[in-house]
Each structure stands twice: as C-alpha cells, then as structure tokens.
Amino acid sequence: MTKVISTFSAKGGAGTSVMTANLAIYLAQKGKKVLLIDAAPNGGTLHAYLNIPSWALSRTVPDFFSVLPLIDTDYPNLKFFSSLRCPQKSSCVAEYLVKWEAELKKSGFDFLLIDMGSHLDHDLVATAYLADMNILFVTPDPVSIEKTNHLFRTFFHTQLDAMVQKLDIASVLQELQRDRTEHLYSARNLLLSLAEELPKARRHFSDIVGRLRIGVVFNMLRTSSEAELKDIYPLVIRNYYGFDLRGLGDILFSEVIQASAQTMAPTVTSERGGEFIEMLDLIAGRVLTLATKRDHPTTNRFLPLTYYEMLGVQRGSSAQDIRAQYEKLRAVYFSQNPLMRDMFDPDSLFIYTRLFESVYQNLMDPDVKREYDMGGGQAPEMLEQSLPEGFDLREVIRKYNRQKKSGPKLVKRDVFGREAEESQTTPEKFDGQDANMLFEKFADRRIAGSDLKALREELGVGLKSVCEKTRISQMVLRSIETDDHRNLPATTYLKGFLRSYCRTLRLSEENTERVIADFLSGLIEPVTAPAPKQ
User: Fold this and answer.
1) Per residue in 433-454, pLDDT tens?
2) Class of the 3-142+208-294 domain?
3) SS3 at position 121
4) Between the N and C ends of the chain, which has fewer C-beta atoms within 10 Å?
C-alpha cells in the first residue's frame, strides 16, 4: 500500500528541496518504488536536482492518477511529477489525494513523496492531515523558529475552528474562555477543558493533535547548543499544543550540502560515506518506521501530562538527570527566547514557568516522588487534578497581578533625556457629553454594530476596557461590533449587553434606547441561542 509522505518548512532556505531530492533517491536506491512530486507553489526546483530540463515538466494534472504523466529519471525505482500546485493551475494537493486514494492503493509505489515547499496555506494544512507522515525541516535561526511556531499555531487553530463549527459548540468554547481563564495557559489545556465539558466528543478533540504525524529535521546545525534543539523543540510544542512530534535527526552544517544546494546536484549519488550519508540513513530508517506504524487506539488517549512527560524525562530517572533536564528547559522558558514567540503571552508564560518549577520541586523531593510513583504516576482524567502538590493556581495569578501593579513604571523621556510631562487626560477618561455630541452624526441612519465600534474608537476607549467594566466577554463584544448575528446571545440578554455598552460610553438614556431599537431591528432573525454567563 502506497504511503504518502509530505515535506515542507515554515521558512525558505531550510533545505526542503535538496533534502527531499536526496531522500527520494536514497529510498529508491534501497529498492523502494518512489514517486517524487513537486508541489511547491512557485513550480519548485526538484527537476533540477534530477537533471530534468524545464521543457519536459508536466503541464496538466488529470483527475485520475492512472493517467498521470510521470517522468522517468536517471534512477531506477524513481518516477517524477512536477508542478502539482502551480499558481496558474489553482491546484489543491489535498483534493487530488482524495481523488487518487483508491488508485494509489493499486499503483505499485511504496512511497509518494510530496515537496510542499514553504508557503503556509490551508492546502498545506489539509495535506499534512491526510499524509501518513510529514517531514518538517527547520533551521536553528530565530526567524525559522518563530515561523515554525506560527505554522503549528495555524495547524492547531485551523482544526479547532473546523471542529467547533462541525460540532456547533461556539457557545461552549466562549464560556470556557470566560470562566476558566486561569487554566487556559496553553492551547493543549483548551482542548482538555473542552474534552471535560463534552466527554462524548473527546475523540474529536484528540484527533486535532493526534492525527498529525510530523517528524522534525533540524538542518545546518553549527553548535552544540543548536544541536540540543532536536530534543527541546518537540517537547516545547507537545507541552503547549499537544502535537506529538518525532525527532528524525539533525544535519550538521556541511560544505557538501552547501555545494549540493548551489550546483543542484544530489549529494547521495556522489558521497558513499561520511556524516551526511549516515544521518540520511538514520532519517530514512525512522521515516520508514513511522510511516508504516499505526498507534493502537487505546494508546492514543488525550489526557493531562504527567510530571515526567512535562519535563521530558523517563520514569525512574535519577535526581541528577532530572536536574540537568530542568536546567535545559528553564533556559528556554523566558520571554525573549525565540522558542516562546507566538506561543505564550506574558501572563500565561508566568503561570506556566511557576507550574514548571513546582513539577521540578515535586520530583526532586524523594518523599513526594516516591508517593507519586507508588500511585502509578498516571495522568488524571481532569485538568484540575493534574496540578502538582502544593501548587495553588489562583494564588500564582494573584501574585503575578500584584507584581504587575508594583513593578517599575516606564518613564517617558524626550531626545534630550528630560522626563516628559504627564498628559492631563488619558484615552479612558472622556467627557460623557462629548459621546452624545459625536452620536449626533448617526441621526440620519440606523445604528449598526460597526457604528458603535467607530464611536468607541473615536472616544479612545479600548475594547478590553469595555470588557472589564461591563463584565461582557470580548467575543460577544466583537460579535456586536462586527454585526455577527450568529454568535449573539438571546434577545433579552442582548438588550442588557447593549445598555451596559452604551453606559460605558456615557451615552444618554435617549440615545441608548435608540441604539437598542436600531440594533435589534437590524437582526436578520430573532436570536435564540442560550445566554452566556457574564
């Protein structure tokens, strides 16, 4: 049965094409029948590595795999097809994989290797979830790490949004984000909280992170600290998002690889030994294992992490090993580290680091560790029960808020170093009469949510400020301001929310009643959704 393997990177220059070409040739040399497909949006460069002229490239993509115009290569067992996702063709790789599914099973190929390039879009996300295995190439520079973080963020939220729409649970998600804020310091915890609220749908939430099979290859490593990324980065992503990444290996910076990229000649054909061939053999072996292996359903349960899983150490590890791993991770979990960008906000990062420290202290206490191990060390079913002994989440949040209030204040200075004078007015302090005067420009038309947003912004009032003063969630406020009628509460409660909103802007009672009447008259149909808690 043909196994589909996609390769991609979050940033150009990570070596996706050169490594994909070398891997395809290597697998073919090992006797595997391989079809290499170039699906990079710009047409790709794989043909150059295979010594195929541009005029010989495929120009059409048929709906049937059996009539796909394949190109012979100089390597036995290796066929090639180009330009599957060329912009002018408006092709979608995921759609073709679905169309070709039945024929692929009978094609005779062992592997379908697809180079998706480095352009992040919905097609790449859909293809990644359809593939039997994905290979992600990353370079250890901050920009590549930051873009890779964004890649996983897109994977997670694209699937979560689709699942929320499929199960029609937008109100449940909104309520969780309002009532369990202190527990949602990671995307993984959001899924766990949804699974607790909707236990019958736990499998669906598990599939969001469980169905994605990704192996990571770090390329062009120069230092020992960069080499540690192959162990640290998958752990960071699993702890925050829940994706179970597999480290396939790391490629040290080599002039051989640089020469291969510059001359567009595969290294595997000229090198018979050396570090690159050894690492390529290791990567290929792991890819073959992971692409053909299927996890047993009972081992794919989505539960909170154990102490050992969170630190990334084996059960029974010595105190010395636990301390060494903790020191590595502690150096990662601070705000300036590129690994943390596009993941934690400052509040969530503070909570997570304190949780991380508490887990370490529990494992370093012999008595607590012994008791934990005697209890099986298994992850509990509930997120609340997974917190370490002695860790008070609400007290940690209160401490953080106190630190923010008592922390050093930013002093504004001019170019000469003189301290700037404080403004007599702030954006949040405005005259109520001004709001009613600005409101007069809406006298000749019906008031909509976009008008309320324009009025609020003209007054200099932030959405977060309205949320804090009215105790209405930002999701509901955004739905009001964008006229998103599908996500509004019931009409009875909507009137109260609009009245609170107008009072925050200091509108008069007369203008407030007009806002309510105009807004409700603009609804396409009566809103009957259950009211969210304030």
Assistant:
1) 477 888 888 878 888 888 888 8
2) alpha beta
3) coil
4) N
